[in-house]
Specification:
This protein is α+β, with helices and mostly antiparallel strands. The chain has a domain of 243 residues: Alpha-Beta Complex (tRNA-splicing ligase RtcB), CATH 3.90.1860.10. The longest helix is centred in the middle third of the chain and has 36 residues. 29% of the residues lie in helices and 30% in strands. The protein is globular. α2 runs antiparallel to α6, α4 packs antiparallel against α5 and α5 runs antiparallel to α6. A 7-stranded antiparallel β-sheet has the order 11-6-8-7-18-16-15. 48% of the residues are buried.
Length: 378
């Protein structure tokens, strides 16, 4: 542990922090009302607050410490099927084509788009602009998104087939963050903050709650679409009782060190004692299902993935399309997209096994999964 600014910063790291990340962490730790900061092994530079950071406050809310993709997270489910069914190239191709048709990357281009469930359609949002955006959100519900969002079919150690899905609140998350940052007070560190007990703070928390539930509903809609596709192509039903779900961009009140704290997680999952979670690798590398150990100094958290080694621009410069194809050997994916997916190549990320070793006291591994087929948009 090392003291930093006004808060106690604890780290679980794969490698020493870069100067830029260290400065960003110091800035956060010195911000008003920050009680504790925990850095996960996948920590890397991002706007305002680094991805892989957990920060606790008593009263202030920091939208930048949640980020724009509010509610971004994971879900996974097993099928009643052996994973080696996907050894057949023709079946793999049918699944890739089917995924591109069943799960649009950006938006549904024409009706019928999925409907918002009653609770999401009826809960008021805090501004007319967000209310107008809610109508657009109808066309994004059940869509994947670009960047590091994906659908992956995987094999566990027993050779059973699983699906893992990563997506978030789509356009609504950044709109919620930006709307509330415009009304935030600037702290001494320059970060925008809201008083949780003020009208503005309560409005932010209500909008975050909406975005969290929107993201969860969207992932479940996509999971249903994957289940229907796998049943059609492989004749394998999904096993609903194996569902695992978690998110990694949120803020909520929790009890730590004998007091109520507002715990912000940006690129970190909650890992309370016994809490299930999902930690993906990069495209083409292993992923993990875990159970939290509830480590107090980590604010009951763990990493949300491997974490970027290179920023997107640097990764695209360093990694060629041919190198990416080599790194994804043995994994079905759309090779036509290789030139545009170079920033998502395994080499652009930290080694997930190094990350898991660095946080072995934070989580217990339940199963390790290897990728078989990866669907990702550009």
């Amino acid at each position: 542990m090392t003291a930093a600014g006004s808060g106690l910063t604890t780290s679980w790291l794969v490698e020493p922090l870069s100067r830029e990340v260290a400065l960003a962490v110091e800035r956060l730790a010195a911000s008003d009302d920050v009680v504790r900061v925990a850095l996960m092994p996948d920590v890397h530079l991002a706007s305002e607050v680094c991805v892989g950071t957990v920060v606790a406050t008593r009263r202030l809310l920091y939208p930048g410490a949640v980020g724009g993709d509010i509610g971004c997270g994971m879900c996974a489910m097993r099928f009643d099927c052996a994973a080696d069914a996907l050894a057949d190239e023709a079946l793999a191709a049918r699944l890739l084509t089917g995924l591109s048709q069943a799960i649009p990357v950006v938006r549904f281009s024409r009706p019928p788009a999925p409907r918002l469930p009653g609770e999401l359609a009826e809960q008021p949002l805090s501004s007319p602009a967000l209310e107008r955006a809610r109508r657009e959100s109808l066309l994004q519900l059940g869509t994947l998104g670009r960047g590091n969002h994906f659908v992956e079919l995987q094999s566990d150690e027993e050779g059973r087939l699983w699906v893992m899905l990563h997506s978030g609140s789509r356009a609504m998350g950044p709109l919620v963050r930006d709307h509330h940052l415009r009304g935030a007070q600037r702290t001494k560190s320059g970060l925008g903050a809201l008083d949780a007990e003020s009208e503005a703070g309560r409005a932010y928390l209500a909008d975050v709650d909406w975005a969290l539930r929107y993201a969860d509903h969207s992932r479940r809609a996509m999971l249903t679409a994957v289940g229907s596709l796998v049943a059609d192509v492989l004749g394998a039903p999904a096993e609903a009782d194996t569902l695992i779900a978690c998110h990694h961009n949120a803020v909520r009140a929790e009890e730590h060190f004998g007091e109520r704290l507002l715990v912000h997680r940006k690129g970190a999952i909650a890992a309370a004692e016994g809490e299930p979670g999902i930690i993906p690798g990069s495209m083409g590398t292993p992923s993990y299902h875990v159970i939290g150990r509830g480590v107090a100094e980590a604010l009951g958290s763990s990493s949300h993935g491997a974490g970027r080694r290179y920023g997107r621009g640097e990764a695209a410069r360093r990694i060629t399309a041919r190198a990416m194809e080599r790194q994804l050997e043995g994994v079905w994916f759309d090779h036509r997209l290789a030139p545009r997916l170079r920033d998502e190549a395994p080499g652009a990320y930290k080694d997930i096994d190094d990350v898991m070793r660095a946080q072995r006291e934070l989580t217990r591994v339940v199963r390790r999964l290897r990728p078989i087929l990866s669907y990702k948009g550009v």
